[in-house]
Amino acid sequence: MNKINDIFSEHKKDKSSFAYDVPNDYFENLNKVVLGKVIKSKKTPIFKLNYFYKYAAAIALIVASYWILSKQAETAVLDCTNLSYCIDDYLTNDDEVFYTFIDEVESTEYLNIDENISDYLVFEF
Amino acid sequence: MIDKKLEEKILNLFNNPSTKIEGFNLLVETYKQTIYFQIRRILITHESTDDVLQEVFIKIWNNLHKFKSKALLSSWIYRIAYNESLMWIRKNKKKHEFEVETLHPSSEPKTNIFSKNADQISVLLEKAIIRLPNKQKMVFQLKYFEDLNYKEIQEITGGSVGGLKATYHHAVKKIKLFLEED
Fold first, then answer.
1. 3-state DSSP of chain B
2. How far does the CA of residue B148 sit from the closest CA of chain A (Å)?
3. How many CB pairs below 8 Å do chains A and B form together?
4. What pLDDT is attached to residue A124?
5. What is the pLDDT of residues B133-152, one digit of tens each?
6. Cβ–Cβ of B46/A41 closer than 8 Å?
7. Which of A54-63, A107-116, B1-10, B69-78 has the lowest average pLDDT?
8. What structural domains does chain B harbor?
9. Whether the predicted model's global pTM rises above the 0.80 cut
10. Interface contact flag, A4 B179, Cβ < 8 Å
11. Which residues of B touch A (CB under 8 A)?
């Protein structure tokens, strides 16, 4: 064990170890290589805000988003007067098609609702 | 162990914009071999050591202006090197395990250490150190090669002083067992 301790104290001085293969001139060139890299590397600018500005920015973003969305919603609101005209036009167009293919006399019969109902009741019951 | 005056000189040069590069050069010149072998003992191969070493120096360049001179500059640098080495191992776990296995095959013939010359003993000692777990490896080399006290080692690796003493003791025991095997 004492001999092992001697080995320990002897090799303590040897920090750069023979046990590892290091390429020739590696340490001589290392300064240039590292300096080249650090000068080239550019830190991307990071804009740091303190807490107050972060929260203010977040709130402003939410308010702006709400405002934009509500603006878009307004333009989608229908004008009721125009809507009823639109519906009437639609129905008229539909009736036009209906009346084109249906005979006038026969087509008006369905409008006598009361007679039709009583006929229905007589026939069925 | 690096002296305080040299560290102060490095910091003064680095913090002055006109001598920043000179200060950084002096830092690299002073620490490159120590840090290289510190990392090499953990990562084993030269290629990975070279990558990590360059990363360490780039981090030092980017952060040295934030360094508070209360602590030792060398402790701060060792800590960066240690953390970068561990991060590399985490990212390259399988590769690292393979490299460790390849380096000390169990079929290696055993001969009496006292019949070897100094270089051979050095190789054996390094092989014994490589076999240690990473934390034991780090604590051992900081205590044995760098002559740091446990307080200084604590700043680098963390943990309690008592724990570090136990870690070093176990590391020494394992190395001695390996060297005595015959």
1. CCCHHHHHHHHHHHHCHHHHHHHHHHHHHHHHHHHHHHHHHHHCCHHHHHHHHHHHHHHHHHHHHHCCCCCCHHHHHHHHHHHHHHHHHHHCHHHHHHHHHHHCCCCCCCCCHHHCCHHHHHHHHHHHHHCCCHHHHHHHHHHHCCCCCHHHHHHHHCCCHHHHHHHHHHHHHHHHHHHHCC
2. 13
3. 81
4. 56
5. 888 988 998 898 888 889 88
6. no
7. A107-116
8. 1-103 (1.10.1740.10), 107-182 (1.10.10.10)
9. no
10. yes
11. 21, 24-25, 28-29, 32-34, 36-37, 40, 46, 50, 53-54, 57-58, 61-62, 113-114, 118-119, 121-123, 125-127, 144-146, 172, 176, 179-180
pLDDT tens digits, chain A, 125 residues: what are they?
566 666 666 666 555 555 678 888 899 999 999 988 887 765 555 566 677 888 898 999 999 998 888 877 665 555 556 666 666 666 655 555 555 555 444 445 555 556 666 666 665 55
Contact criterion met (CB < 8 Å) for B122 and A35:
no
Provide ipTM, 2 decimals: 0.72
Nearest CB to A35: which of B25, B113, B121? Answer: B25
Contact residues, chain B, for A21 at CB < 8 Å = 46
